[in-house]
Amino acid sequence: MAAKRDYYEVLGVSKTVAQSDIAKAYRKLALKYHPDSHPGDEDATSKFKEAAEAYEVLTDDQKRARYDQYGHAGLEGSGGGFRDVGDIFEAFGDMFGGTVFEDFFGGQRGGGGGGRNRQRRGADLRCDVTLTLEEAAKGVRKTVSLNRHVECKTCEGSGAAAGSQPETCRRCNGRGQVIQSSGILRVQTTCPSCRGAGRVISKPCGDCDGQGLQPKEVRLEVSIPAGVDDGMRVRLPGEGQPSPDGGPTGDAYCFVHMKQHSIFKRDGIDLILQWPITFAQAALGSMIEVPTLDGKKPLQIAPGTQSGSVFQMKNMGMPDPHGRGQGSLLIQTVIDVPKKLNKKQEELLRQLAELDNDHVTPERKGFMDLLKSYFQSDEDAAVAASDKK
């Protein structure tokens, strides 16, 4: 598979470009590579999709920030994207003046039938799930709920009251679109009377108010992959709102929220653990047991370990959600100074302190000599100043 091009390069803009300039660049490329201008040209269609994908990311502040920091890898597993050219028209058609694409290219969308609008895709829905660190590390199945419209049982989805039927819209003659002309300029827009449906309901159903749909709470099972992090989302294809005119159903997106763990902190796929050790363990070295997501594991503390030293336990962190290995557990040692000592401990520590004073290491002797020289120079300067007086 060929590597994806940089989105800024695709649109021909700089990384500091404003949103308005991104839209201008996309319009230009969309018209240049529109499939109806290049029938059967797969390269043009590919560039049309590539430009739309770049526009979709760079005009979303959160996606753009993640892309600027991590590149294409930062967008993996975040859902979105386009199934086909028709999805692009559904997403961005409005930025071209309603349905100006159809008018500009002879009333068709991506090779669809002439005259009538392409069936619209249902809206996407959102649900949320909260996970513990342990659940995110292993992957888990969760039950989520969302409100989705279902067909009204009273009118069987027609929106019309019993004994009546929807009527063809007289303003657009059932096309769902009207054309407005001004000189040589012709712009095709959604019919304001029927809102693109091509029909009107004179006697609406009382239970659904003429919508043909009613809201209903739906419970779904969602499989959360191992390694997900806070803010990521899982796509549930086809679990969104139904199309208003018989088109494809939208998708649902399950957004992940992470609970704060009591002892572990997360940094990407790595876990960080601050672990207290005694002065004796730090000075002499020790074999300790530390908690991991897989239970207690032994860790060798080297003699002379300083407070703040970090020990790495590979493959004990979080799995990469994109399948690229597993992070590490980073143990940061903190020397625990006791607030209270028993008599024996105090006696031994005082003996140690006396030994420290009697047997000064070369490093410490050097520091003490420097300290003595510093104060001696101050005394000499004071004597010299006094002699001048």
Structure, explained:
There is one protein chain. The protein contains 10 helices and 15 strands. The relative contact order is 0.09. By secondary structure, it is an alpha+beta fold.
In whole angstroms, how far apart are the ends? Answer: 87 Å
Structural class by SSE content: alpha+beta
Any low-confidence stretches, pLDDT <50, length ≥5?
Answer: 93-117
Report helical residue fraction: 25-40%
Number of strands: 15
Mean pLDDT: 81
Please give the count of helices: 10
- The radius of gyration computed from the alpha-carbon positions, rounded to a whole number of angstroms, is 34 Å
Q: How large is the share of residues in beta strands?
A: 15-25%
Shape estimate: elongated
Question: What is the string of SSEs from the N terminus onward?
Answer: HHHHHHEHEEEEEEEEEEHEEEEHH
Q: What kind of sheet is the major sheet?
A: 4 strands, mixed
Q: Biggest sheet: strands side by side, in what order?
A: 10-11-15-14
Helix/strand layout:
Blueprint: H1 7-11, H2 19-32, H3 42-58, H4 61-70, H5 85-92, H6 100-104, E1 125-131, H7 133-138, E2 140-151, E3 167-168, E4 177-182, E5 185-190, E6 199-200, E7 213-224, E8 233-236, E9 252-258, E10 265-267, E11 270-277, H8 279-284, E12 286-292, E13 295-301, E14 310-313, E15 329-335, H9 343-358, H10 362-388
Parallel strand pairs: 1-9, 11-15
Antiparallel strand pairs: 2-7, 3-6, 4-5, 8-9, 10-11, 12-13, 14-15
Labels describing this entry:
10 helices; 389 residues; alpha+beta; three-stranded mixed sheet; four-stranded mixed sheet
